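The instructor's notes for this session suggest beginning with a concrete chain rather than abstract definitions. Hand out the sequence below and ask the class to guess, before any prediction is shown, which regions might be ordered.
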Amino acid sequence: MKQYSVTGMSCAACVSRVEKAVSKVPGVESCSVSLLTNSMGIEGDADPSAVIEAVTAAGYGAAEKGSSNSGASSESGGNVNALPDTDSLKDTETPRLKKRLLWSLGFLLVLMYFSMGHHMWGFPVPAFFHNTPVAIGLLQLILAAIVMVINQRFFISGFTSLLHGSPNMDTLVALGSGASFLYSTVMLFAMAGAQTRGDSEAVAACMNEFYFESAAMILTLITIGKMLEARSKGRTTDALKSLMNLSPKTAVLIRDGLETEVPISEVKKGDIFAVRPGESIPVDGVILSGSSAINEAALTGESIPVDKAEGDPVSAATINQSGYLRCEATRVGEDTTLSQIIRMVSDAAATKAPIAKIADKVSGIFVPSVMVIAAAAFLIWLLTGHTVGYALARGISVLVISCPCALGLATPVAIMVGNGMGAKNGLLFKTAASLEETGRIRIVVLDKTGTITAGEPVVTDLLPCEGISEQELLSLAATLEQHSEHPLAKAVMKKAENLGILPGELTDFQVLPGNGLRGNHNQTLLLGGNFSMIRKEAHIPEEIRTLTEKLSTEGKTPLFFAADHRLLGIIAVADVIKPDSPRAVQELKNMGIRVIMLTGDNQRTADAIGAQVGVDQVVAGVLPEGKEAVVRELKKVGKTAMVGDGINDAPALTAADMGIAIGAGTDVAIDAADVVLMNSRLTDVSAAVRLSRGTLKNIKENLFWAFFYNVIGIPLAAGLWIPILGLQLSPMFGAAAMSLSSFCVVSNALRLNLLKVHSTEKDRIPKDAVPLSALPDFSNKKEEESLGFNEMDYKEETTMTKTVKIEGMACGHCTATVKKALEALEGVSSAEVSLNNKQAVVTLTAEVSDDVLKKTVEDKDFTVTGIE
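After discussion, reveal the predicted structure:
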């Protein structure tokens, strides 16, 4: 996305005008203009000069962001990836408006003293003015003119926009104030004529038609509102500015063994830098030596420091709290994690939320409509017999009370504050649309490995046989597993290391078919593997077999170990569930969101994990392309989000209505995801939904206020309620209402800073929540095959039967013996043995060869005549 700064905009009508003008430029695919940040984001390959020319032709100014130093930009190409700087976000508008306001107030107070103070309440004035009423009128004209010159920006912008055929808020203010001034000037000349004729009644009548104070008061009150609005708008970018201020300005490089402090811009990839305790890490890197506790709150929102040691990555702007570190720079400049976060927040602010289209449609015709209503009000009151001054007051009131600015600010201020809140809590929304749509999610699909679970197998149980200690079992297991590269072997080795157990010497190490291991240790044959492999080498007692079933049901993988054909025990290994996963799933369900667990694992393991965390549905045995198909099916039921690691889940993340990458702390640039969660906490998914719903609610409140204000205010200003209720609005009160409307909208958006994204107190189930019965049934074989399920895992979990023809069975004891032998096989879920039919119907959940079935039966002294 290319970003431009735009000048001269004052309301939603300006935004609409710029967007229409730029959208016509060849090469522009989409254009989004933000009134809040006075910026414009463009997708496409349009010529920047053509874009700037289009904006200029529309009556505004534009410039490429970062164009002044584009020559120094990286390979990414000019300002496409240019980051905003603190100067561009600095609030320069509030001081300028404050200065204008003070000067305006000074002259307005003098004007009010001579107009209303003397005329209405008899405040004393020099005797000269008593004898020459025209002098008072002339003084009012001069004072009002000074205030108008001080606030000339309204007139320049307003009439320029009018000449370009795109009237805006400034046009309404300029017309209202200008009409008051011109009419009052005409009345002043009329009063001068009456005074020349000596007609005192006409002089008094003309003086009552002066609206000089209204002309000045309108401008001053609008300036007050603009200043309050600018001040509040400045606060909406506080989060982004605080992120930018986190970046260290210098780094300590180690060159030729000496430490040298250099500006951060001089650090290059591969440089060695040092970080002392208490200092911020200057760029992304990897620790070469040293260890420390690193405070990563700036990036993740997590206040608890993370222990880092040699080989661990570190990120710019995080704080080294304890040890001295030597690191190698891996990412510098605009490639650091912090810079990517800043870019993401900035780009999101430059995009437009879908709900903003409501305001866009209205603002395009709003100002012309108001001008027509004001003219109609003036003519109607004039034709009904009222004075020109009275009719003019009604028309001016309509002009100055109308506020398209509030419409234009309703969405972007809430989006900016919401994005800032997300950045503080490690929740990054790539676009305004993703911030809005996340709250509308009704189904969340969770990848199991690395999302619900830790993604790394660990030892969960040590179950030694009688006469064997846990330490002895683990020691011999580690001795056997030390040369294996299998993830389960690494889990055993890590457990041994944590307990201070060192593996012994091993010779004749072999990897056996079926992932079994064997080797010799001190002339003792060590064996390790699964149940099928070990049962051929050692006797496995019945209670151990029962325990194996229990472990498998819990989603654990039992590893059997034996020494000299004697069973030593079982070590259970599992990819353990993250501590916060059950709570995270429950939080999502409490928000009316259906939770689906999607995994390539077999059904038994998946069901065990799913039951522990409490998901609504488990879909197992799915390949990456199958995950995408599952997501597409779920999208037919309700708005669906896919939560994964953003790598092997990329197809599903892209296919989902909302792709959420979790645990991407040092790699936030995941193209497939719409939302990036900096932490590995699954509870951040519900926090993101909570923030989105809070932001969307705030936007709706803002839009309601903006529309409601105009729906009530314009008829009141036009005098619709005068004949009915006697309610009448002067232009000055109309201006005051207008000035406060935008301030109220911005102030309401700032309330989002008080939102507690991890609090469940206000969680509610929406009316359109998806019922459990509406979820697709993925257990159907035909449906699974069409969704690209993992063929191997599918066969493991899909029931298939084999019929074994058996001779030699003579009684119930014989059938019971055959049944027990077959059901002890791994992959056999049940065996129905018939004495009359002389056969056993075996139900399988995994592939079991005919030879294995035959050998199992014949080992019990029966004869197998065939297998079908």
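Then share the key points. The CA atoms of residues 545 and 789 lie 30 Å apart. The first strand starts at residue 2 and ends at 7.
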